[in-house]
Write a structure and sequence with these properties.
With 191 residues, the chain is an all-beta fold. Helices cover 2% and strands 50% of the residues. GO terms for molecular function: translation elongation factor activity. Pfam families: EFP, EFP_N, Elong-fact-P_C. Keywords: Cytoplasm, Elongation factor, Protein biosynthesis.
């Protein structure tokens, strides 16, 4: 058992005989009243997403999962193919099961695949950051700083990220997978 305040994105718990995956969990303190947890949850089997509010002290049954290291290979339509990096077994996962995680997937991305006790795929856990290339954005502004207002940039996967004004098309960026936010230029360590 775990309290709702300790639930984080990617965790899975059982409730009313269903497996529920946490998509988002926010600690919210309204002006008056008690603190609540606002969460977006997905029913693993049906794929239905619901917004739910829970008391922070409410307890849920966390589900133990088996994790396997896997590499994303390719997609065909709404089916995404991953390969176990140890056994080379291939697994197909639907876009519905992956949800918004598909916007962070490029070929060769290494993820953790989550399996239940009966070897059924629940979903994936992305690395903390991924490197994506800017496909489309407004031209960069010389002399702009990170502290500026920023501008939207569409990444190669279709993800739209708010980036600093000095970023140009074709640049590789480090993007955080938790919130889909800009972290740095991918090649900034070499500068």
């Amino acid at each position: 058992m775990v309290q709702a305040i300790n639930l984080k994105k990617g965790m899975i718990f059982s409730q009313d005989g269903k497996l529920i995956k946490v998509l988002k969990a926010n600690h919210h303190k309204p002006g008056k009243g008690n603190t609540v947890m606002q969460m977006d949850l997905r029913d693993v089997k049906s794929g239905a997403v619901v917004h739910k509010t829970m008391r922070p002290t409410e307890k849920v049954d966390l589900v133990e999962l088996t994790k396997k290291n896997a590499q994303y290979l390719y997609s065909e339509g709404d089916t995404y193919t991953f390969m176990d990096t140890e056994t080379y077994d291939q697994y197909e996962v639907s876009a519905d099961q992956l949800g918004d995680d598909v916007k962070f997937l490029i070929p060769n991305t290494v993820v953790d695949m989550d399996f239940t006790d009966d070897n059924k795929i629940i979903g994936i856990e992305l690395p903390a950051t991924v490197e994506l290339t800017v496909k489309e954005t407004q031209p960069g502004i010389k002399g702009a700083t990170v502290a500026g207002g920023g501008k939207p940039a569409t990444m190669e996967t279709g993800l739209v990220v708010q980036v600093p004004d000095f970023i140009n098309e074709g640049e590789k960026l480090v993007i955080g997978t938790e919130n889909g936010d800009y972290k740095s230029r991918a090649n900034s360590q070499a500068r």
